[in-house]
Amino acid sequence: MTLRYKRVLLKLSGEALMGDQEFGIDPEVLQEIAQEVKEIHALGVEVAIVIGGGNIFRGITASNYGVDRVTADYMGMLATVMNGLALQGAMEKEGVMTRLQTAIEMHQVAEPYIRRRAIRHLEKGRVVIFAGGNGNPFFTTDTTASLRAVEIGAEVILKATKVDGVYSADPMLDKDAVMLPRLTYLDVLQQGLKVMDSTAISLCMDNRLPIIVFNLTVRGNIKRVLIGEELGTVVQGG
């Protein structure tokens, strides 16, 4: 089996862990994600993961209701650590050695983020989960994903979503919306497409880092992307 990528960064939203719930973590979904990661890890792929916290707390939303934005963002970062711990537990239950690194130091529960140590873990066959955002308010976990991917030398960002790819409009609201299989970074920025935020897209563009947006809810899709099947939306240079 020929793999298209050797080292990848998987971006998971916090909402991906909810399943059909309105809040929190669905244990079955968590287990399914862990099993999918285990499958690609067994192929020899070096896997890093950035996880969001929107299933527990979303800083930008809370700031609209009177919570100071900086405080709200730090609360959101802590939510990503909770998700990271849950995912680490699920991964190790599947027998995959995992390391959780956080941008906000909390030695009792995770390693601090150290780039060289993260790369060494990947080289030794461990899955590395990055939590705590990038340690600064006003940045999303999309930007963290782009930053960490560049820092560790990932070959691609796999952006896991609940839809098949990037659409011209919201497919839930517009029946004429069509999926766009290929986009450039400038397409995303100029058309305001909701792939990742503009800071994340710009960082990927500057470093020529491709993004593949795909549907995580279809079992086996991560593996299909890695072996080169045409799946989802690919965002790269023109």
Word description of this protein:
The chain is an alpha/beta fold. It has eight helices and nine strands. It has a nine-stranded mixed beta sheet with strand order 4-3-5-2-1-6-8-9-7, sandwiched between helices. It is globular, with a radius of gyration of 17 Å. The chain starts with 6 loop residues before the first strand and ends with a strand.
Strand order of the largest sheet: 4-3-5-2-1-6-8-9-7
Counting helices, strands and paired strands, the structural category is: alpha/beta
Distance between the termini: 29 Å
Written as H for each helix and E for each strand, in order along the chain, the element string is EHEHHEEHEHEEHHEHE
Continuous helix count: 8
CATH superfamily: Acetylglutamate kinase-like
Spans of at least 5 consecutive residues whose pLDDT stays below 50 are none
